[in-house]
Design brief:
about 400 residues; mainly alpha; elongated
């Protein structure tokens, strides 16, 4: 009914150790040293920190400065109110359509809820680790009182787990800083929530919110200055669009920057260079530096972007000053200007909040790894101390 057959890999194992085409891939051919896996993880962490913090993060800060400058200059509301006294500007209509398509309010509320869940999970894991340490410390103090310090000679809990107790303060600092950032983002949302509701409504409801102004004969000088201001505003808009494309391109570049195959070549080189030496992640430091050097031009480009942005904003401020001077005395479109500007500000705040929430989500995901390791280290420490205490008692 059944015949026992021993696989050749078991009956003739020596035939499968080495490169034999007739038997296919040799056993353990893809097995790599643990240090290589650790090194790959370290590189990915450094790459992501470099790209997200030193490059993309700085570029997004610069973009926020553009929106703050536009808001302080009351742009583009003041220009839109003059150029189009009736109806809604095309820019505002496109922004409203984007907000509607994204279902902005639901998206933001869902993101806030998801972030809160991640934060709650991190805090629960962190609390679990602290409770393990607290239980171990309580038990150690009980045994110390029972046997006396002369007989119970091992170090106290804080001295034995100095790094773990230091980590508590460090992680608490992370959580406190994150809580402050979360509150700032929520405040931003509360400030623009009403305007976002209007922006996500129908075109007719937006038109009801934005009052029309009477048509006026624009003086030749005002028309010229308005044209100059519009040119400067378009230059800033194109500059920001190029930056968004650059950020997306950089994210794609980092995503494709895998080192799985290359690091094996580097590991083989290190094994030849240091025969008999066990590989550790520190051996790959030079390799990391050489590999991350490909992002040096992107880091330098941030400084160039900042200088270019300062130049464009300076031109915009000068054009806006002359525009306001030429327009002095005209208050016919003041209410319309304010309504348009409030809607534009809400749109930019929405984009900013989306970016903030994405950063927060990534932060809590990264923090989950830290608190997870902390909890596991606390459990391991507690287990070793319990075993040690049992031996001392016996």
């Amino acid at each position: 009914m059944a015949i026992a057959r021993v696989p050749k890999e078991v009956s003739e194992p020596s035939a499968f150790i080495g490169d034999h085409k007739e038997f296919g891939r040799p056993l353990f051919a893809q097995l790599v040293p643990f240090a290589v896996h650790v090194a790959a993880s370290i590189y990915e962490e450094r790459r992501d920190r470099l790209v997200n913090s030193s490059i993309i993060g700085e570029l997004e800060i610069l973009t926020t400065k553009i929106h703050d400058a536009l808001q302080s200059l009351n742009l583009p509301g003041s220009l839109q109110a003059l150029e189009k006294p009736l109806g809604l500007p095309s820019t505002l209509l496109s922004h409203a359509e984007e907000v509607r398509q994204a279902d902005a309010l639901t998206r933001l509320q869902r993101s806030f809820a998801d972030t809160a869940k991640l934060k709650s999970s991190d805090e629960a894991i962190f609390t679990e680790g602290k409770e393990v340490l607290h239980s171990e410390r309580t038990e150690d103090e009980r045994l110390r009182l029972r046997y006396g310090t002369e007989r119970w000679t091992r170090p106290d809990s804080k001295s034995a787990a100095e790094k773990l107790y230091a980590q508590i303060a460090e992680i608490e600092g992370y959580l406190k800083s994150a809580a402050n950032s979360d509150e700032l983002v929520k405040t931003k949302f509360r400030e623009c929530e009403d305007m976002l509701k209007i922006l996500s409504s129908s075109e007719r409801e937006i038109s009801n919110f934005v009052p029309s102004s009477r048509r006026i004969n624009i003086a030749p000088r005002l028309e010229v200055e308005a044209g100059k201001l519009r040119t400067c505003l378009n230059d800033v808009s194109r500059f920001e669009s190029r930056r968004r494309r650059k950020i997306e391109s950089l994210r794609e570049k980092a995503k494709k920057d895998g080192i799985s195959s290359i690091i094996l070549v580097e590991a083989a080189r290190l094994e030849r260079e240091y025969p008999g030496t066990q590989l550790v992640a520190a051996h790959f430091e030079d390799f990391f530096e050489q590999r991350l050097a490909q992002y040096d031009p992107d880091v330098e480009a941030v400084k160039t972007e900042a200088l270019e942005q300062d130049r464009l904003l300076e031109q915009l401020e000068e054009a806006n000053t002359t525009f306001i001077s030429a327009r002095r005395g005209d208050t016919s479109s003041r209410e319309r200007e304010q309504a348009l500007q409030r809607l534009e500000n809400a749109y930019f705040k929405y984009k900013e909040i989306v970016s903030n929430l994405e950063v927060g989500r990534k932060f809590y995901n990264d923090l989950s790894k830290i608190v997870g390791r902390f909890r596991d280290d606390c459990k391991a420490f507690s287990y070793s101390r319990r075993s040690e205490a049992a031996q001392m008692e016996s």
